[in-house]
Write a structure and sequence with these properties.
This protein has about 425 residues and is an all-alpha fold. It has helices at about 10-35, 40-60, 65-85, 90-100, 110-115, 120, 125-135, 140-150, 155-165, 170-185, 200-215, 225-245, 250-260, 285-300, 310-320, 330-345, 345-360, 365-375, 385-395, 400-410, 415-430.
Protein backbone atom coordinates (compact mmCIF):
# COMPACT_ATOMS: atom_id res chain seq x y z
CA UNK A 1 0.00 0.00 0.00
CA UNK A 2 1.41 3.43 -0.86
CA UNK A 3 2.88 5.73 1.79
CA UNK A 4 0.85 8.72 2.91
CA UNK A 5 1.80 12.08 1.43
CA UNK A 6 0.49 14.06 4.40
CA UNK A 7 -0.58 13.42 7.97
CA UNK A 8 -3.59 14.88 9.71
CA UNK A 9 -5.57 16.05 6.69
CA UNK A 10 -8.76 17.81 7.70
CA UNK A 11 -12.12 16.11 7.38
CA UNK A 12 -13.16 18.57 4.69
CA UNK A 13 -9.98 17.95 2.68
CA UNK A 14 -10.47 14.21 2.94
CA UNK A 15 -14.13 14.47 1.93
CA UNK A 16 -13.16 16.50 -1.15
CA UNK A 17 -10.37 14.11 -2.16
CA UNK A 18 -12.60 11.06 -1.64
CA UNK A 19 -15.33 12.65 -3.77
CA UNK A 20 -12.83 13.43 -6.55
CA UNK A 21 -11.35 9.95 -6.37
CA UNK A 22 -14.81 8.39 -6.48
CA UNK A 23 -15.54 10.29 -9.68
CA UNK A 24 -12.25 9.35 -11.31
CA UNK A 25 -11.60 5.83 -9.99
CA UNK A 26 -14.92 4.17 -9.11
CA UNK A 27 -15.38 2.48 -12.45
CA UNK A 28 -11.79 1.27 -12.60
CA UNK A 29 -11.87 -0.15 -9.07
CA UNK A 30 -15.15 -1.96 -9.60
CA UNK A 31 -14.02 -3.29 -12.98
CA UNK A 32 -10.83 -4.68 -11.45
CA UNK A 33 -12.78 -6.47 -8.72
CA UNK A 34 -15.35 -7.82 -11.16
CA UNK A 35 -12.59 -9.23 -13.34
CA UNK A 36 -10.96 -10.89 -10.36
CA UNK A 37 -14.01 -12.15 -8.46
CA UNK A 38 -16.62 -12.48 -11.27
CA UNK A 39 -19.13 -11.17 -8.74
CA UNK A 40 -20.71 -7.80 -9.50
CA UNK A 41 -22.45 -7.41 -6.13
CA UNK A 42 -19.31 -8.28 -4.20
CA UNK A 43 -17.25 -5.87 -6.30
CA UNK A 44 -19.57 -2.93 -5.64
CA UNK A 45 -19.95 -3.69 -1.94
CA UNK A 46 -16.19 -3.96 -1.40
CA UNK A 47 -15.54 -0.77 -3.36
CA UNK A 48 -18.09 1.04 -1.21
CA UNK A 49 -16.43 -0.34 1.92
CA UNK A 50 -13.05 0.95 0.72
CA UNK A 51 -14.36 4.49 0.22
CA UNK A 52 -16.01 4.39 3.65
CA UNK A 53 -12.73 3.25 5.20
CA UNK A 54 -10.87 6.10 3.48
CA UNK A 55 -13.20 8.60 5.10
CA UNK A 56 -12.44 7.04 8.48
CA UNK A 57 -8.68 6.61 8.20
CA UNK A 58 -7.27 9.35 5.97
CA UNK A 59 -7.95 12.28 8.36
CA UNK A 60 -5.59 10.69 10.88
CA UNK A 61 -3.22 8.66 8.69
CA UNK A 62 -2.89 11.08 5.79
CA UNK A 63 -3.99 10.85 2.17
CA UNK A 64 -1.96 8.28 0.17
CA UNK A 65 0.14 9.45 -2.77
CA UNK A 66 -2.04 7.31 -5.04
CA UNK A 67 -5.57 7.31 -3.55
CA UNK A 68 -6.93 5.12 -6.32
CA UNK A 69 -4.33 2.43 -5.71
CA UNK A 70 -4.98 2.52 -1.95
CA UNK A 71 -8.71 2.12 -2.55
CA UNK A 72 -8.17 -0.70 -5.05
CA UNK A 73 -5.95 -2.60 -2.62
CA UNK A 74 -8.32 -2.02 0.29
CA UNK A 75 -11.32 -3.15 -1.76
CA UNK A 76 -9.46 -6.22 -3.03
CA UNK A 77 -8.39 -7.19 0.49
CA UNK A 78 -11.99 -6.80 1.60
CA UNK A 79 -13.09 -9.09 -1.24
CA UNK A 80 -10.49 -11.69 -0.25
CA UNK A 81 -11.75 -11.58 3.34
CA UNK A 82 -15.32 -12.04 2.18
CA UNK A 83 -14.42 -14.93 -0.10
CA UNK A 84 -12.29 -16.56 2.60
CA UNK A 85 -15.32 -16.65 4.88
CA UNK A 86 -17.57 -18.02 2.15
CA UNK A 87 -17.77 -21.80 1.91
CA UNK A 88 -17.71 -21.72 -1.90
CA UNK A 89 -15.02 -19.10 -2.23
CA UNK A 90 -11.91 -21.25 -2.46
CA UNK A 91 -11.48 -21.18 -6.24
CA UNK A 92 -12.32 -17.50 -6.49
CA UNK A 93 -9.91 -16.70 -3.67
CA UNK A 94 -7.10 -18.39 -5.53
CA UNK A 95 -7.94 -16.45 -8.70
CA UNK A 96 -7.96 -13.13 -6.86
CA UNK A 97 -4.57 -13.92 -5.34
CA UNK A 98 -3.12 -14.85 -8.74
CA UNK A 99 -4.48 -11.84 -10.63
CA UNK A 100 -3.90 -9.17 -7.97
CA UNK A 101 -0.32 -8.42 -8.92
CA UNK A 102 1.25 -5.17 -7.77
CA UNK A 103 -0.48 -2.71 -10.07
CA UNK A 104 -1.38 -0.43 -7.16
CA UNK A 105 2.21 0.43 -6.30
CA UNK A 106 3.59 2.43 -9.21
CA UNK A 107 0.65 4.07 -10.95
CA UNK A 108 1.12 1.97 -14.11
CA UNK A 109 -1.73 0.49 -16.10
CA UNK A 110 -3.48 -2.44 -14.48
CA UNK A 111 -2.44 -5.72 -16.15
CA UNK A 112 -6.15 -6.28 -16.67
CA UNK A 113 -6.05 -3.86 -19.58
CA UNK A 114 -4.71 -6.58 -21.87
CA UNK A 115 -7.53 -8.87 -20.77
CA UNK A 116 -9.97 -6.01 -21.34
CA UNK A 117 -8.91 -5.91 -24.96
CA UNK A 118 -6.75 -2.79 -25.50
CA UNK A 119 -4.54 -4.42 -28.12
CA UNK A 120 -7.37 -5.92 -30.15
CA UNK A 121 -10.05 -3.27 -29.71
CA UNK A 122 -8.04 -0.12 -30.31
CA UNK A 123 -10.00 1.63 -27.54
CA UNK A 124 -7.25 3.43 -25.63
CA UNK A 125 -9.38 5.44 -23.19
CA UNK A 126 -9.73 3.52 -19.91
CA UNK A 127 -13.25 4.68 -19.06
CA UNK A 128 -14.59 4.10 -22.57
CA UNK A 129 -13.02 0.64 -22.75
CA UNK A 130 -14.75 -0.27 -19.51
CA UNK A 131 -18.08 0.98 -20.89
CA UNK A 132 -17.67 -1.19 -23.99
CA UNK A 133 -16.83 -4.08 -21.67
CA UNK A 134 -20.02 -3.67 -19.65
CA UNK A 135 -22.30 -3.34 -22.69
CA UNK A 136 -22.36 -7.06 -23.43
CA UNK A 137 -24.81 -8.08 -26.19
CA UNK A 138 -25.93 -11.14 -24.21
CA UNK A 139 -27.91 -8.71 -22.05
CA UNK A 140 -30.94 -6.74 -23.18
CA UNK A 141 -30.06 -3.21 -24.29
CA UNK A 142 -31.71 -1.57 -21.29
CA UNK A 143 -29.88 -3.91 -18.93
CA UNK A 144 -26.55 -3.14 -20.59
CA UNK A 145 -27.06 0.59 -20.22
CA UNK A 146 -28.46 0.48 -16.69
CA UNK A 147 -25.74 -1.83 -15.39
CA UNK A 148 -23.01 0.32 -16.94
CA UNK A 149 -24.43 3.51 -15.46
CA UNK A 150 -24.61 1.86 -12.04
CA UNK A 151 -21.29 0.06 -12.10
CA UNK A 152 -18.94 2.41 -13.94
CA UNK A 153 -20.57 5.84 -13.74
CA UNK A 154 -21.60 5.42 -10.12
CA UNK A 155 -25.16 6.64 -10.71
CA UNK A 156 -27.65 5.60 -8.07
CA UNK A 157 -30.53 3.24 -8.74
CA UNK A 158 -32.85 6.23 -8.24
CA UNK A 159 -31.07 8.22 -10.95
CA UNK A 160 -31.08 5.30 -13.38
CA UNK A 161 -34.76 4.59 -12.71
CA UNK A 162 -35.57 8.19 -13.53
CA UNK A 163 -33.61 7.95 -16.80
CA UNK A 164 -35.74 4.97 -17.85
CA UNK A 165 -38.97 6.35 -16.28
CA UNK A 166 -39.60 3.25 -14.18
CA UNK A 167 -40.12 2.87 -10.41
CA UNK A 168 -36.93 2.48 -8.40
CA UNK A 169 -37.81 -1.05 -7.14
CA UNK A 170 -38.37 -2.12 -10.75
CA UNK A 171 -34.94 -0.86 -11.80
CA UNK A 172 -33.34 -2.48 -8.74
CA UNK A 173 -34.77 -5.84 -9.75
CA UNK A 174 -33.59 -5.40 -13.34
CA UNK A 175 -30.07 -4.72 -12.12
CA UNK A 176 -30.18 -7.81 -9.91
CA UNK A 177 -31.38 -9.96 -12.82
CA UNK A 178 -28.67 -8.59 -15.12
CA UNK A 179 -25.92 -9.38 -12.62
CA UNK A 180 -27.38 -12.84 -12.05
CA UNK A 181 -27.40 -13.53 -15.78
CA UNK A 182 -23.77 -12.48 -16.08
CA UNK A 183 -22.81 -14.73 -13.20
CA UNK A 184 -24.86 -17.77 -14.21
CA UNK A 185 -24.00 -17.58 -17.90
CA UNK A 186 -20.31 -16.98 -17.26
CA UNK A 187 -20.30 -13.91 -19.51
CA UNK A 188 -16.64 -12.81 -19.88
CA UNK A 189 -15.70 -9.35 -18.69
CA UNK A 190 -13.64 -8.03 -21.62
CA UNK A 191 -14.06 -5.64 -24.51
CA UNK A 192 -14.46 -7.27 -27.95
CA UNK A 193 -11.97 -6.83 -30.81
CA UNK A 194 -12.35 -3.78 -33.01
CA UNK A 195 -14.41 -5.45 -35.74
CA UNK A 196 -17.10 -6.36 -33.16
CA UNK A 197 -17.36 -2.97 -31.44
CA UNK A 198 -20.31 -1.96 -33.62
CA UNK A 199 -22.65 -4.44 -31.93
CA UNK A 200 -22.12 -2.56 -28.65
CA UNK A 201 -21.98 0.99 -30.01
CA UNK A 202 -25.70 1.69 -29.61
CA UNK A 203 -25.62 0.84 -25.91
CA UNK A 204 -22.41 2.80 -25.39
CA UNK A 205 -23.99 5.89 -26.99
CA UNK A 206 -27.00 5.50 -24.71
CA UNK A 207 -24.73 5.36 -21.65
CA UNK A 208 -22.95 8.58 -22.66
CA UNK A 209 -26.25 10.29 -23.52
CA UNK A 210 -27.89 9.39 -20.19
CA UNK A 211 -24.76 10.31 -18.27
CA UNK A 212 -24.93 13.78 -19.84
CA UNK A 213 -28.66 14.05 -19.12
CA UNK A 214 -28.10 13.37 -15.43
CA UNK A 215 -25.44 16.05 -15.41
CA UNK A 216 -27.52 18.61 -17.28
CA UNK A 217 -30.69 17.99 -15.27
CA UNK A 218 -29.99 16.18 -12.02
CA UNK A 219 -32.54 13.72 -10.66
CA UNK A 220 -32.50 15.14 -7.17
CA UNK A 221 -30.66 17.43 -4.79
CA UNK A 222 -29.82 21.08 -4.35
CA UNK A 223 -28.03 21.57 -7.68
CA UNK A 224 -29.82 21.27 -10.99
CA UNK A 225 -26.61 20.91 -13.01
CA UNK A 226 -23.76 18.49 -12.27
CA UNK A 227 -21.04 20.01 -14.42
CA UNK A 228 -18.60 17.15 -13.91
CA UNK A 229 -20.93 14.61 -15.49
CA UNK A 230 -21.59 16.91 -18.47
CA UNK A 231 -17.86 17.39 -19.03
CA UNK A 232 -17.11 13.69 -18.77
CA UNK A 233 -19.93 12.75 -21.17
CA UNK A 234 -18.67 15.24 -23.76
CA UNK A 235 -15.12 13.93 -23.34
CA UNK A 236 -16.30 10.36 -23.93
CA UNK A 237 -18.29 11.47 -26.97
CA UNK A 238 -15.18 13.13 -28.40
CA UNK A 239 -13.14 9.95 -27.90
CA UNK A 240 -15.88 7.95 -29.63
CA UNK A 241 -15.90 10.40 -32.54
CA UNK A 242 -12.14 9.96 -32.94
CA UNK A 243 -12.53 6.18 -32.77
CA UNK A 244 -15.50 6.03 -35.18
CA UNK A 245 -15.35 9.12 -37.43
CA UNK A 246 -17.62 7.54 -40.06
CA UNK A 247 -20.46 6.64 -37.68
CA UNK A 248 -23.11 9.37 -38.11
CA UNK A 249 -24.87 8.70 -34.82
CA UNK A 250 -21.58 9.02 -32.94
CA UNK A 251 -21.07 12.44 -34.55
CA UNK A 252 -24.73 13.25 -33.96
CA UNK A 253 -24.43 12.51 -30.26
CA UNK A 254 -21.34 14.70 -29.90
CA UNK A 255 -23.13 17.49 -31.77
CA UNK A 256 -26.17 17.15 -29.51
CA UNK A 257 -24.12 17.31 -26.33
CA UNK A 258 -22.10 20.31 -27.51
CA UNK A 259 -25.16 22.27 -28.67
CA UNK A 260 -27.04 21.53 -25.47
CA UNK A 261 -24.13 22.13 -23.12
CA UNK A 262 -23.50 25.49 -24.80
CA UNK A 263 -26.52 26.82 -22.87
CA UNK A 264 -25.41 25.50 -19.49
CA UNK A 265 -24.00 28.78 -18.12
CA UNK A 266 -27.35 30.51 -18.69
CA UNK A 267 -29.50 27.70 -17.33
CA UNK A 268 -29.34 28.78 -13.69
CA UNK A 269 -28.89 32.26 -12.22
CA UNK A 270 -26.44 33.43 -9.57
CA UNK A 271 -28.65 32.02 -6.80
CA UNK A 272 -28.93 28.60 -8.46
CA UNK A 273 -32.50 29.13 -9.65
CA UNK A 274 -33.67 27.66 -12.95
CA UNK A 275 -33.89 30.08 -15.89
CA UNK A 276 -36.26 28.80 -18.63
CA UNK A 277 -34.98 28.75 -22.20
CA UNK A 278 -37.04 31.73 -23.36
CA UNK A 279 -35.65 33.92 -20.55
CA UNK A 280 -31.99 32.94 -20.79
CA UNK A 281 -29.29 35.53 -21.46
CA UNK A 282 -28.10 34.26 -24.83
CA UNK A 283 -24.88 36.25 -24.60
CA UNK A 284 -23.83 33.64 -22.03
CA UNK A 285 -24.19 30.80 -24.51
CA UNK A 286 -20.88 29.25 -25.55
CA UNK A 287 -20.51 30.22 -29.19
CA UNK A 288 -17.46 28.01 -29.68
CA UNK A 289 -19.45 24.94 -28.63
CA UNK A 290 -22.35 26.01 -30.86
CA UNK A 291 -20.03 26.38 -33.85
CA UNK A 292 -18.35 23.03 -33.24
CA UNK A 293 -21.68 21.34 -32.63
CA UNK A 294 -22.98 22.66 -35.92
CA UNK A 295 -19.90 21.40 -37.74
CA UNK A 296 -20.22 17.95 -36.17
CA UNK A 297 -23.90 17.81 -37.11
CA UNK A 298 -23.17 18.80 -40.71
CA UNK A 299 -20.50 16.09 -40.92
CA UNK A 300 -22.98 13.51 -39.59
CA UNK A 301 -25.72 14.52 -42.01
CA UNK A 302 -23.35 14.33 -44.98
CA UNK A 303 -22.95 10.61 -44.29
CA UNK A 304 -26.58 10.16 -45.31
CA UNK A 305 -27.73 7.84 -42.51
CA UNK A 306 -30.02 9.89 -40.25
CA UNK A 307 -30.74 8.73 -36.72
CA UNK A 308 -32.29 9.89 -33.46
CA UNK A 309 -29.20 11.63 -32.10
CA UNK A 310 -28.77 13.58 -35.32
CA UNK A 311 -32.41 14.70 -35.21
CA UNK A 312 -32.08 15.78 -31.59
CA UNK A 313 -28.92 17.67 -32.52
CA UNK A 314 -30.81 19.42 -35.32
CA UNK A 315 -33.46 20.48 -32.78
CA UNK A 316 -30.75 21.79 -30.45
CA UNK A 317 -29.23 23.67 -33.39
CA UNK A 318 -32.56 25.40 -34.07
CA UNK A 319 -32.50 26.76 -30.53
CA UNK A 320 -28.81 27.64 -30.64
CA UNK A 321 -29.07 29.61 -33.88
CA UNK A 322 -32.03 31.73 -32.78
CA UNK A 323 -30.78 35.18 -31.76
CA UNK A 324 -33.85 35.69 -29.58
CA UNK A 325 -36.57 33.47 -28.17
CA UNK A 326 -39.09 35.01 -30.58
CA UNK A 327 -36.83 34.09 -33.52
CA UNK A 328 -37.01 30.37 -32.73
CA UNK A 329 -38.37 28.36 -35.67
CA UNK A 330 -40.94 26.32 -33.76
CA UNK A 331 -42.51 24.98 -36.94
CA UNK A 332 -39.20 23.38 -37.88
CA UNK A 333 -38.70 22.06 -34.36
CA UNK A 334 -42.21 20.55 -34.31
CA UNK A 335 -41.51 18.87 -37.66
CA UNK A 336 -38.22 17.47 -36.37
CA UNK A 337 -39.93 16.10 -33.28
CA UNK A 338 -42.48 14.46 -35.54
CA UNK A 339 -39.66 12.74 -37.41
CA UNK A 340 -38.03 11.77 -34.12
CA UNK A 341 -41.30 10.31 -32.83
CA UNK A 342 -41.52 8.09 -35.91
CA UNK A 343 -37.91 6.96 -35.55
CA UNK A 344 -37.79 6.61 -31.74
CA UNK A 345 -41.38 6.48 -30.47
CA UNK A 346 -41.14 7.16 -26.73
CA UNK A 347 -43.42 9.00 -24.34
CA UNK A 348 -40.78 11.60 -23.54
CA UNK A 349 -40.35 12.38 -27.23
CA UNK A 350 -44.12 12.77 -27.51
CA UNK A 351 -44.12 15.16 -24.55
CA UNK A 352 -41.40 17.26 -26.16
CA UNK A 353 -43.32 17.22 -29.42
CA UNK A 354 -46.37 18.50 -27.55
CA UNK A 355 -44.34 21.44 -26.26
CA UNK A 356 -43.13 22.24 -29.78
CA UNK A 357 -46.60 21.89 -31.27
CA UNK A 358 -47.94 24.12 -28.52
CA UNK A 359 -45.46 26.81 -29.54
CA UNK A 360 -45.91 26.32 -33.28
CA UNK A 361 -49.69 25.82 -33.53
CA UNK A 362 -50.96 27.22 -30.25
CA UNK A 363 -51.49 25.92 -26.71
CA UNK A 364 -54.75 24.16 -27.56
CA UNK A 365 -53.01 21.89 -30.05
CA UNK A 366 -50.23 21.14 -27.58
CA UNK A 367 -52.67 20.47 -24.76
CA UNK A 368 -54.51 17.87 -26.82
CA UNK A 369 -51.28 15.90 -27.18
CA UNK A 370 -50.46 16.26 -23.47
CA UNK A 371 -53.93 15.13 -22.43
CA UNK A 372 -53.59 12.05 -24.62
CA UNK A 373 -50.28 11.23 -22.94
CA UNK A 374 -51.87 11.80 -19.54
CA UNK A 375 -54.69 9.37 -20.32
CA UNK A 376 -52.23 6.73 -21.50
CA UNK A 377 -50.52 6.67 -18.10
CA UNK A 378 -47.14 6.24 -19.79
CA UNK A 379 -45.63 9.20 -17.91
CA UNK A 380 -47.34 8.68 -14.58
CA UNK A 381 -45.19 10.22 -11.84
CA UNK A 382 -43.03 12.20 -14.29
CA UNK A 383 -43.07 15.80 -13.08
CA UNK A 384 -42.57 17.37 -16.50
CA UNK A 385 -45.94 16.08 -17.72
CA UNK A 386 -48.06 18.15 -15.27
CA UNK A 387 -45.52 21.00 -15.55
CA UNK A 388 -46.03 21.11 -19.32
CA UNK A 389 -49.77 20.83 -18.92
CA UNK A 390 -49.73 23.70 -16.39
CA UNK A 391 -47.87 25.98 -18.78
CA UNK A 392 -50.27 25.27 -21.64
CA UNK A 393 -53.29 25.82 -19.40
CA UNK A 394 -51.78 29.09 -18.16
CA UNK A 395 -51.37 30.31 -21.73
CA UNK A 396 -55.02 29.41 -22.39
CA UNK A 397 -56.13 31.52 -19.43
CA UNK A 398 -57.40 28.51 -17.42
CA UNK A 399 -55.84 29.69 -14.16
CA UNK A 400 -57.47 27.28 -11.72
CA UNK A 401 -56.67 24.21 -13.83
CA UNK A 402 -53.13 25.48 -14.36
CA UNK A 403 -52.66 25.99 -10.61
CA UNK A 404 -53.74 22.42 -9.91
CA UNK A 405 -51.29 21.13 -12.50
CA UNK A 406 -48.48 23.22 -11.03
CA UNK A 407 -49.19 21.79 -7.58
CA UNK A 408 -49.06 18.26 -8.99
CA UNK A 409 -45.73 18.97 -10.68
CA UNK A 410 -44.28 20.49 -7.49
CA UNK A 411 -45.23 17.38 -5.53
CA UNK A 412 -43.38 15.18 -8.03
CA UNK A 413 -40.23 17.30 -8.39
CA UNK A 414 -37.06 16.13 -6.62
CA UNK A 415 -34.65 18.99 -7.40
CA UNK A 416 -34.69 22.19 -5.40
CA UNK A 417 -34.13 24.46 -8.40
CA UNK A 418 -37.04 23.04 -10.39
CA UNK A 419 -39.30 23.11 -7.34
CA UNK A 420 -38.55 26.78 -6.70
CA UNK A 421 -39.20 27.62 -10.35
CA UNK A 422 -42.58 25.88 -10.35
CA UNK A 423 -43.51 27.50 -7.05
CA UNK A 424 -42.71 30.94 -8.50
CA UNK A 425 -44.92 30.15 -11.48
CA UNK A 426 -47.73 29.10 -9.17
CA UNK A 427 -47.42 32.21 -7.00
CA UNK A 428 -47.41 34.48 -10.06
CA UNK A 429 -50.48 32.73 -11.44
CA UNK A 430 -52.50 32.82 -8.22
CA UNK A 431 -51.54 36.42 -7.41
CA UNK A 432 -52.83 37.57 -10.80
CA UNK A 433 -56.02 35.60 -10.29
Amino acid sequence: MSEPSAVGATDSDVARIVAETFRDEWGRIVATLIRQTHDWDLAEECAQDAFARALERWPGEGVPRNPGAWLTTTARNRAIDRLRRAATGASKLQEVAVTSGSDESNGQRDPATDELGLAESGVEDDRLRLIFTCCHPALAREAQVALTLRTLAGLSTTEIARAFLVPEPTMAQRLVRARRKIRNAGIPYRVPPGHLLSERTGAVLAVVYLLFNEGYSATQGAELVRAGLCTEAIRLARVLAELMPDEPEVLGLLALLLLTDARRAARVDATGDLVPLEQQDRSLWDQHSIAEGGERLDAALRLGRPGPYQIQAAIAACHARAATADATDWQEIAALYGALARMAPTSVVELNRAVAVGMADGPEAGLALVDALDRSGALSGYHLLPATRADLLRRLGRASDAAAAYREAIALTNTDAERRYLERRLVALTSRA
